[in-house]
Amino acid sequence: MKFKQIIIAVLSLFTMVGCTENFDELEKDPVALSANPAGQLRFTQLCMSGDGYYQWRANLIYSGGFVQHYAGAWNVTEFGSKFKKNDDYATALWRNGYSNEMKSIVDVLEKTSGDPAAVNMNAVAKIMKVMIAQRLTDIYGDVPYSEAGLGFSKGIVTPKYDKQQDIYNAFFTELQEAFTQLNANGGAVKGDLFYEGDITKWKKLANTMRLRLAMRISEVSPVEAEKQAKAAFQNGVFESNADNCVMHHLDFPFNDTPGALDFRGNGLSYAFIGNEHADHFSSLMIDFLRNNGDPRLTMLATAKTGSANWGPPAPGEELYVGNIPGVFQWDMPGGSNAISGIQPYLKLKTTPFLHVSYSESQLLLAEAAYRGWITGAAADYYKKGVEAGIRQLEVYGAPAASQTAINTYLSAKPLVAGTEKEQIGTQLWVTYLFNSIEAYSNWRRTGYPHLLPITNPDSETQGVTPTRLYYPNDEMQKNSKNYLEALSRMGGTNDWLNKVWWDVN
Question: pLDDT tens, 347-363?
Answer without folding.
Answer: 999 999 999 999 999 99
